[in-house]
Every structure is written in C-alpha cells, then in structure tokens.
Amino acid sequence: MKLLKLSIALCLVGVSAFAGVPQGRITNKIDSQNAEIALRGLKAGDKVNLLQQVCEGPKVKLCHTEKVGSAVVSKVIDSDRSEIRIEGQQPVKENLIIEKQ
Predict the structure, then answer these.
(1) pLDDT value at residue 49
(2) Terminal CA-to-CA distance of the chain, rounded, Å?
(3) Which of 22, 50, 62, 75 has a 20 to 30 A CA-CA distance from 38?
(4) What pTM did the predictor assign?
(5) What Cα–Cα distance (Å) separates residue 62 from each residue in 14, 48, 65?
(6) Which portions of the chain are predicted below pLDDT 50?
(7) In this structure, are residues 42 and 48 in contact, taking their beta carbons and an 8 Å threshold?
(8) So what's the pLDDT on residue 70?
C-alpha cells in the first residue's frame, strides 16, 4: 500500500512539472526570419524557444523534443496569434513547437 501511494505521488509530481509550460506552433511562415505563431498570453518583446520533435529508433520510435533556436515576439495580432522574429541564422520551419521562456 505504501508503494502504491508513493507511486501515485511521484506520478502527480511528474505531471505537474509539465503542466505549467504553455506551448504553441508556427502556423504561417512569413519570410526566412519571421513567422506567425499560435500561442496565448504573449506580449511584444517576450522570448520564446523553438523546439523540434526528434524521433529515433529502427523499429520502435522514441521521440523527444530538442531546442533548435529562439525568437522574440515582434507583434501581437490577437489574443491567440503573434508574429515572431527568429534570432540568429536559424531558418523558419513550419510546425515547430513554440514554448514561452
């Protein structure tokens, strides 16, 4: 019984660690350095991380996300959509995952 309670407690802690990180996606590529994103709660000047899902393995694909760049919110279009400018020379790819820093 102790083991069951401990397992449940650890699962809840693990799930709550990921619950607070809002994520969105690049919805429209404007040019090589600018894109439109769908993510709530952003304001001009906020920094976001660009993440890409990477899957590896011959038969069973194990997937994880890795950071491929960062960007700054240049313009808020409405409460759900914003425009970002990529920092550095990383080109914009559609369907990257966006995470607020």
Answers:
(1) 94
(2) 40
(3) 62
(4) 0.71
(5) 19, 25, 11
(6) none
(7) yes
(8) 93
